[in-house]
Amino acid sequence: MLPNPGHPKRADADVDPIHNYYERLVLEEIVNQSDRARQGDRDFLADTACVALNRLPPKYIRHNVDMTFFMSPQEVAETEQKVTDAVQAALSYVQQREEQKSQA
User: Where are the domains positioned within the chain?
Assistant: First the structure.
């Protein structure tokens, strides 16, 4: 993350839009797979996203096109499958944890 030259001492000032490539993909996949997420359960969405993202390697980029432009169709398909698998595992994990809490 690069600070704005006008604020050299503040690392958080006007930071370039650096983000993890998987964040948007994971959020979209959770909404696709989960009624709770579609109904607006933001805590469930956030918990599930954190678990899923921790199962994927971080890929920090500035622009999504930077990533997808240089990926082959096979790499795109593999990435989509990794996201689907990570979200399925995360949904299961979060739901199991909630069930354990309610039984305690």
Answer: 19-97
